Amino acid sequence: MIEIEHLTKRFGSTLAVDDISFTVRPGLVTGFLGPNGAGKSTTMRMVLGLDRPTGGTAHVNGRSFVDLPSPARAVGAMLDAGQVHPRRTAQAHLTALAETIGEGRVRVQQVLDLVGLTDQARRRAGTFSLGMRQRLGIAAALIGDPGIIVLDEPMNGLDPDGIIWVRSLLRRLADEGRTVFVSSHLMGEMAQTAGHLVVVGRGRLVADVPTDRLLSDHASVVRVRGPEPTRLARVLADAGGTVEPAGDSALHVTDLDPAQIARLTLDHRLEVHELVTERRSLEDAFLELTHDATDYRADHTTERTVTP
Amino acid sequence: MSTPKPAPATTPTRHAQGPTIARVTTSEAVKLRTLRSHVVLLTTAILFLFVLGPVQALGQVLAPQSAQPVPDLGAATSVALNGGVTAALLLGVLGVLSVTSEFPTALVRTTFWAVPKRGLVVGGKAMAFSRLVLPLVLIGAVTALEVSRLVLARVDAPLTWAEPGTWWAAVAMSLYAVGWGLLGQALGWILRSAVGAAFALLGLMFVLPMLVGLLPRPVSDAVLPLLASEAGAAMMRVDQSGPGLAPPFAAIVWIGWMAAGLVVATVTVRRRDA
C-alpha cells in the first residue's frame, strides 16, 4: 500500500507536483498516467525517498520509505532502465544490489531466470538493447521479492513481445497480492494493463478511478452543430453538459446523451443541423482529461511573454 | 513468452534483512572490482609503487657518481618508495571514479533505492575502497622496500628492517595512498563530476599549499603544516627531526582530513535530491 497525501514538489519556480493525494492498493495494477513532464517520475522519486517533498507525505506500508527496516524487500523499484553502469555486466550489477540485503548468487540467478536474461548475464549492460535493459531493471526491482513494485515507464521502447511479457508479469505480480504501481504516458497501453488509473497533468491530480469507469465515461462525445452556437452552448452547459468548441460552429458535448440534447434544443427552440455521437479513442479521453492542466500551462507561458 | 512465477527471496526470515554497513561494504566491493577501468587503475598504481623505487635504487648502484647519495634511512626509504606519489595520484583518481561513475547513468538512484540511508553508502564505499586498497599498497610498499634494500646493499645504504623507521615508512605510505583515494571519494560525492573532483583533488594537494605559502609568514607557518598535503608528507618522514609536524601527529591530521571529507560528503549527499 502506498499512501500519498498532499504531496508537493517545487523546483525553483516550477511546481512539478502540486498537492497530489491518492492511494495505491494491493492486488491490482495501478497505472500512473500523464503526459511527459506531468510529475510522474518526481512523484515516484519522492515515494522512494530520493527527492525530498516540498510539502505533504508519501508513505509506504504506513511509514516513509527511508524508515523501512528493509526498504528493497518492501518496495522494488525501477526508475529508469538506464540506471546501470554500461561497462558492468548484468550479473555484477544484480550481485551488487543483492549484497545490500544479504542475498547472493542464488537470488541473482532467480531474477535473471525470471526476466529471461540468464544467457546474457555476463554481457555488459551497455551492449543491451533497450528491451533487455528494461528486463534488467525489472530484475533489479524484484531482487528483494518485494510486496510493492514501482516501475517508471517499464514498457518504454519495448517491442510488442516485450510489452505483452511486461503486461502479463505485472498482472501476475498483482494477482499474487502485491501492490503494482506503473507509470506511462500512453493511455492505450495502460488501459490494457491497469485495473485502476491515476491520471496527472501539470503536476495536478486529474483522475483517480477504476480503468473501466474512466473508459466508459470518456468513450463517446456528441457533436452538435447549429446556427447559434453561443446560445446552444449556454443551454447545454446550463443543463450540466461539458461543452467545447469543435470548429465550424460545431460543439463537442460530454456528460449529456443525444436524447437529452435533442430534448433541450427542442425546448429552447434551437435549430440543429447536426447531432451525432462520435466514438473516441483512449488517447482522446486522455487528452481531454489532461487538457485543462495543459492549458493552464500554456496560458501561464503566454502571460509571461506578454508582460515582461 | 512465458512468465515464470517470481521465486521468493532465499532467506526465510524477512525481518532485519536490510542494509547494514557490512552488507553495503560488500556490495560496494563488488562494484569496485567489476569495472575493468577500476581494476586497470588499481593495478597500474600498485605497479608504479613497486617498480619505480627499485628502478631508482638500481640507478644508485649502477651510476653512484651521478645519483644523490643515500646517507641515512630517510633518504633510502624515499628512494625505495619513489613510486608512492604517482601511485597515490592514481588511487586518488580511482577514488573519484568509484563515486562519480554512478552519476552519469543515475545508477546512484538505484543505489539509494537499495540503501536509502545514504551515510551507509558513503561509508560503505570508503570501507570497500580501504579494505581492497590498503593491503595491496602495504604489500606493494613492503616489496618495494625489500627489493630496494637488496639492491642498495651494494652501496651500503643504511636500509634495514631492523629499524622501526622502515616499517613506519611502509605503513605511512599505505595510509597516504589510501587517503588520496578517500579524499577523491569525498570530493566525488560533493562535486558529482569526475573532472571537477579530480581537479579539486589536485588543487587541494598541490595548489592550496602554494597559495597558503603566499600568506604573511606567521599565518602561513601556522596553517601550512595542517594542510592535507603537508601533513601527508610529514607523516611519511622517517626521522623525527625536520620541518612540519612530527610523523605521528601528522598521521592524525591526515586521518582527520579523510574523516572531515567523508563527513562533509555525507551531509551533502543526505541533503540533496538524488
TrEMBL record, chain A:
Name the InterPro entries for this protein.
AAA+_ATPase, ABC_transporter-like_ATP-bd, ABC_transporter-like_CS, P-loop_NTPase
One GO molecular-function entry = ATP binding
Task: Please give the SUPFAM superfamilies that the UniProt record associates with this protein.
Answer: P-loop containing nucleoside triphosphate hydrolases
Q: Where is the ABC transporter domain?
A: 2-227
Q: Which Pfam families match?
A: ABC_tran
Q: Sorted alphabetically, which keywords does the UniProt record give? A: ATP-binding, Nucleotide-binding, Transport
Q: Gene3D superfamilies, alphabetically?
A: P-loop containing nucleotide triphosphate hydrolases
Family named by the database record: Belongs to the ABC transporter superfamily.
PANTHER family named among the record's database cross-references = ABC TRANSPORTER, ATP-BINDING PROTEIN (PTHR43335)
Q: What is this protein called?
A: ATP-binding cassette domain-containing protein
Q: Identify the taxonomic lineage of the organism of origin.
A: Bacteria, Bacillati, Actinomycetota, Actinomycetes, Propionibacteriales
TrEMBL record, chain B:
UniProt-annotated stretches for the region Disordered: 1-20
Keyword list (alphabetical) reads:
Membrane, Transmembrane, Transmembrane helix
- Is Isomerase one of the keywords UniProt gives this record? no
Does the keyword field hold Transmembrane? yes
* TM region positions: 39-59, 79-99, 120-145, 165-183, 195-215, 245-269
The name under which this protein is listed is: ABC-2 type transport system permease protein
- Give the source species: Nocardioides pini
